[in-house]
Records
---
Amino acid sequence: MSVASNEPVLKAVIPAAGLGTRFLPASKAIPKEMLPVVDKPAIQYVVEEAARAGIDDVLMITGRNKAALEDHFDRHWELEAALERKLDDEKLRRVRKSADLGNVHFVRQGEPLGLGHAVLCAKAHVGNAPFAVLLGDDLIDETDSLLQDMIAARMRHGGSVVALMEVPQDQIHLYGCAAVEPIDGETDVVRVTSMVEKPAAADAPSNLAVIGRYVLDPSIFDVLETTAPGRGGEIQLTDALLTQATSDQPGGGVLGVIFRGNRYDTGDRLDYMKAVVRLAVRHGEIGSDFREWLLEWAGSDECNGLEQHQLTH
Ligand code: UTP
């Protein structure tokens, strides 16, 4: 049963063991989370987001291509020594940043048996405390405070928390979908009464999609251990959360925080390109030059005539 909780959220789990098939062939030899968004791999934005919420202990759930992820969050002594010799402080700062974000740990999922199974792989590391889950391919704009708002909601009401976003009805089949009811005195924090993974538009209980941020009560591990494979033969986190949503056991109950900011699924090619462009125009060094070029190019014959000579892939 959900009760207010003053336990802090100090650990984050970042599942990054999916196959990334939507981004093939780019994701064949490197995890899609390592694809650059302007000048940082997507996953670095996610670890930075956790750090902004006060979390400096991160466990990544990785698959067979984990080497690049491990190397990225480790020190690179030869590169640092070369930059020190050149007195290039700016590049030195950039190369060190990812290793200075906190303690990043890794565990292998072994087989990609689903997001629920990936989260279960974190059980020994997390222990008996609430924890955050951030999907490694989901970017939340750094000007938004979604994770902080979710942690605050958990402290007020207890239980677990999912992030929800309104999506057009014809896209709801791509997401987990939540049925919700209001909570007295709250705006944009709701109680989740039911959840369904990737429903057909006609069967969807709402237009509220579950996006890739969670704050979970540790009782979720017991639920995941007994959750049978669901949609696609995978152990679905949504199925375990559905059990939690209707549970009156300690740690049960699920809240939704409705997010109205910018979010990008960098595992999807179109969303990935939107993320690159949006973040590039705001970039401190190249932003204004890129924006100037983009505006000029958008008005050019090359851009506007593209339909006639659509490039093949
Ligand atoms: P996705 O639904 O994006 O699946 O997973 P995917 O396999 O990575 O990508 P596609 O659909 O084949 O292109 C959502 C998140 O859950 C992680 C993924 O790495 C991603 O961050 N995940 C998924 C795991 O860690 N393990 C799994 O078994 C499944």
---
Amino acid sequence: MSVINMEQLLCEAVDYAKSFENNGEVASYIPELSYADRNAVGVAVVANNKKIYKHGNWDTLFTIQSISKVISLILALQTSGAEKVFSKVGVEPTGDAFNSIIRLETHHTHIPLNPMINAGAIAVVGCIDTPFAFHDFLELTRKLCGRNNIILNEAVYLSEKATGMRNRAIAYMLRTEGVLEKDVEHVLDIYFKMCSVEVNALDLAHLASILANDGVSIFTGERLVESWIIPIVKSIMMTCGMYDGSGEFAMKVGMPAKSGVGGGIMCMSEENLGIAVYGPSLDAKGNSVYGLRILEYLSKELNLHYFAGKSTKEYY
Ligand code: GLN
């Protein structure tokens, strides 16, 4: 058995990422996001031996953005069940940008293609069947991230609410098609708030470790996500979690993952490693440029690719 110095490996992964030119841009279509430091980079890993490893700007706070789509999907499945949720959203990759509107008109069913793009996530928020959806979302986020003082970044929320016209267009479209049954502005308000919750890389690594460990916290042994939900969420992350970069990410890194325009990416190995990276400089598809390189490096060095050959097993 090989012994791995994880702290050392994380340093190497960051150095590897930094050895490439930072050719991305910080998201600016939500004005408040544009203040992030484009050279920031951090990584955190929560391992199944309860050890935590971190490097660089692992504790910098940033908004969760689209990574919230994983938590809202869990909450919708927990409160409404799979049948209801998947009558409002599909599970197919789009090949289009995360904020694309086009398939709502041209696709034969008029339901958004998957829960990891904006249209799908807005439809999913409409399925959260609790009286105080954002409150419950925040509570679940705190539990899954293992930090009970996680809060909303008010400035980002207001910035997003003021400028999110494309999301508004998507939501009204979903309302005309009967996909959204609730008040559109109310659903959008929850969506904007969810995206504006502030986390760091360690929070997301913690969340990832719970998804890696069948919904159970490795620290407390408490079940936080029902077991039947885990394969649904992870397979959708694998096929759709990196938007129109999902196929390339699956090929190069090979783990279920979810990114956000705040600069975070979280992903998880089969062997119960929760991994998260932060780097707000984004490529054209909205994925962290440093984050992609770090995950590529870790996947290769630790042989984490789901479809790569693992050690031979014997069956009898
Ligand atoms: N709040 C962002 C939006 O709606 C989330 C998008 C993202 O992270 N890709 O545009």
